[in-house]
Amino acid sequence: MSEASRPSVLVVDDKENMLKLFSRILGEAYAVTTAGDGERALALLASREFDVVVTDIQMPGADGFAVLREVKRRAPSTEVVLVTAYASIPKAVEAMREGAYDYLSKPFDPDEVALVVARALARRRQQQETEGLKEKLAAAPDFHGLLGTSAPMRQACAMLAQGAARDFTVLLLGETGTGKELAARAVHAESPRRAGPFVAVNCGALPAELVESELFGHAKGAFTGATAARVGLFEEASGGTLFLDEVGELPLPVQVKLNRALQEKEVRRVGTTTPIKVDARVVAATHRDLQAEVAAGRFREDLYYRLNVFTVRMPPLRERREDLPLLALHFLAKAGRPLEGFTPEALRALTSAPWPGNVRQLENAVARAVAVAQGPRIQLEDLPPELGRSAGGGALPPESLAKLPYREAVDSARDAVSRDYLTALMQEFSGNVTHAADRAGMERESLHRLLKRYGVRSEDFKRSE
To answer: What is the pLDDT of residues 79-97, one digit of tens each?
Structure first.
């Protein structure tokens, strides 16, 4: 990897031996620049941007706090790792409240340095990716709540706008959860009838004996329980749009009367013979193949042709995967918690999942993840279990990680390694930190610090006698 293509790290320390140590630890993976004091670091920061800055806190002149503040003023996305003696840890914690990513306490293990810098770089990249997604989301076309920049979605929105301009029946086809009601509302909002009512009914949710009354109304005494006359949904939607969701679920006798209502633009309330003129534009939707339903005798052919004047197919998520990150970020923003975004593993799981429930399933998955998330970003484990299993991240399982030296485990599993690796070590050695440190190829105290950092308690793995 060329010097220009490697991530850049600025190391600031007033001790030459520490600068050499950091250069030796980080030099293979990063383009390392060193500064022997805070003033030199400030001059470098004024001329260029770094991916990660590693700085000692205690320095004469401009100290680590001055470096941190200058970094956050000039390049807020640059991550800062502080180096401190054990006695100065409270100062490091204070600096983290000011925006530092993490701290290293002396003496430190070289592997710990490499891991902390790698994770700081990963966080910077995640932030940059999230900011890029936010910019794309802000610039993405929003057709009355229908989001997406993919070709199938752009085509569907163009068709909806085209159909809305003409006052004829629109038939929306698509799997469950693809946004057919949003599409119907978009047709209404784009049509000359936008000032009129939008009335929606799920035909599949209506009891068979009440469907006709709901759609067309009834007269007082028309049937048991009809204690007063009632206006039907066709009349309620007069001057606006009537959305018949899951129209394929209507009983055949009602299909006959619906076809007549569409043809004559009038309805008869149950229990009367007097026709009532209605002026409602119908948008119908179904997840069923209506041609197959016609062939099976479950849907009337004449009604099918009456509805199939202008048809728009809403694409499933699997056909518009490039929209998934934008949609996930959109639902995250709607969820009401100020989370930063998604880890790469979580985003990979979202974009590779099959999504049989489409956009509705995605929204529910993000809402669930927001509810259980403990950190600033949604992790893979925050997502519904079936999504995590489909992610295929490629990392070794924890039981395999425990057989590797620490640096090889980091290389194998990258950002997801730490807690899984440490947990596997503790499981294998029943909480014995000394034996686990020998297997990991690191000092016992270094392992203790890592266990504390990632919240893995060795005592939880000790076997009772």
So the answer is: 999 988 765 667 767 777 7
